[in-house]
Amino acid sequence: MTRTAYVRPYRRTDREALADICVRTADNGGDSTGLHPDPGLMPALFAEPYAHLEPDLVFVLDDGAGHAVGYVLGTADTRRFVEAFREVWLPLVTDRFPEPQGEPATLTEAMTALLYTPERMLLPELDAHPAHLHIDLLPPWQRKGHGRELMGAFLGALHQKGAEAVHLAMLTANTPARAFYDRLGFRAIDVPDPGPLTYLGRSTAGVEPMGWAGSGWRARERAQAAGSEG
User: What is the arrangement of strands in the sheet containing 165-171, beginning at the earlier edge strand?
Assistant: First the structure.
C-alpha cells in the first residue's frame, strides 16, 4: 500500500526526529553533523526550544508511516519567546553546552554564543512582524509542495492566535530558499548590517485557516487508528 505524506501537529514522540531533521539541514540546507563536536548544538538553538516552549506551533510532515521528515516551528510573539528562552530553556542546556569565555575562536564557539544571546532575535525593524519561524525538510521531501503545506498550517495557526505578521531570517547565499519564500509572498525587511542574513516577512492573513490542516490530519489519524485496531 502506498503511504501518503501529510502535515500534522507535533507529538512529543517526534522530538528525536525534529532534532535529526535540524542537524541534517543546518549547514545552509545541508548536513551539519560533522561541523560541531556535539551535533545537538543546532537543534538546541533552532528546533528544540520551540518544541519545548510552544509545541502548539510546531507542525511536522509525516511520511505516512508516523515518521516526521520535515517541520515548521516558531512563535507568535518573539519578545515573549526570548524571555522564555533565557528563563526556561537556557538552564536546561547549559551543562551540555557551556558558555564560551572571551571572543569566539571557532564556529562551534560562535554558535554556542548565540545560544546565550537570545536577545539577538529582537530588532526594532522586526517589531511590525512579531512572530517568527523556521522551516526545514529532509532533501528527499523537498520540492514536492510539502513546504507550502507546512507553511499554510503554520500561518493559519498564527492567524488564529492573533499574530498579524511573521518574519524569518535566512542565509542570503541560500538562493533556492529565497525563491521558495518569494513564491509564498515573503518580502525583504530592511535591517541595517544584517551580516550573512536576509530578513523576510509577510502577513499571516490570506492563508487557509487551521481547519485546512486540522481536518486532514484528524481524518488520517482516525483511519490509522482504525487500521491498527482491526
Answer: 6-9, 58-62, 68-75, 131-137, 165-171, 197-203, 187-189
Q: Quickly count helices (H) and strands (E) in the chain.
A: 9, 7
Which secondary structure element, helix H or strand E, spans residue 23, and what is its range?
A: helix 15-25
In angstroms, rounded to a whole number, what is the distance separating the alpha carbons of residues 221 and 228? 10
SS3 content of the chain, % helix, strand, coil (to 5): 45, 20, 35
Q: H/E element holding 170?
A: strand 165-171
Residue that has been written with the C-alpha cell 508511516 in this structure? 65
Q: How far is CA 26 from CA 60, 225, 227, in A?
A: 17, 34, 36
DSSP readout, 104-143?
--SHHHHHHHHHT-GGGG--GGGTTS-EEEEEEE-GGGSS
Q: Write phi, then psi, for 181 (nearest 5 degrees).
A: -65, -40
Using CB atoms within 10 A of its CB, is residue 82 exposed (0-12), middle (13-18) or buried (19+)? middle
DSSP 8-state symbol, 86: I
What are the helix (H) ranges across 32-143? Answer: 41-46, 48-53, 78-84, 90-93, 107-115
Q: Give the model confidence (pLDDT) of 28-87 as tens digits.
A: 778 788 889 999 999 999 999 999 999 999 999 999 999 999 999 999 999 999 999 999
**Which cell is 44 given?**
538546541
Q: Which residue is associated with the grid cell 538553538? A: 45
Residue that has been written with the C-alpha cell 532533501 in this structure: 139
Grid coordinates of 17? 526526529
Q: Which grid coordinates are listed for 210?
A: 487551521
